Amino acid sequence: MRFILNVVWLVLCGLWMAIGYVIAGIICCLLIITIPFGIASFRIAGYALWPFGRTTVERPDAGAASLIGNVIWVVFAGWWLALGHIVTGIALCCTIIGIPLGIANFKLIPVSLMPLGREIVPVD
């Protein structure tokens, strides 16, 4: 079932959301000081392509630097990506088949707002 949901996700919104994360990552990697944001964005792009069967957990070693980085991320890129998840989530929830995909989009909003200090792990 996860495979089917991932394929439908990829076709309907996963590819577009991943492209958004890759663009944000490329922009962040242009400046040396924002390379950690770019790396986090590339990591989330992979998660946005194939989210079912994986989840995010907080890293125990994340500290004050992650908090400060997340605040900077929200100001410059996070809210744009969260807005994309909100719009696609609402659009997907308009159909019965798209409701699980819309819910998955809403679950990606916290990750898009605060990517630093989080790790993507398999559900198993």
From TrEMBL:
Protein's name in the database: YccF domain-containing protein
Record's keyword annotation contains Metal-binding: no
Sequence intervals crossing the membrane: 7-24, 30-50, 62-80, 86-106
InterPro entries: Inner_membrane_protein, UCP028777, YccF
Repressor recorded as keyword: no
Inner membrane component domain boundaries: 4-54, 68-118
Keywords: Membrane, Transmembrane, Transmembrane helix
Organism per entry: Streptomyces orinoci (Streptoverticillium orinoci)
Domain of life: Bacteria
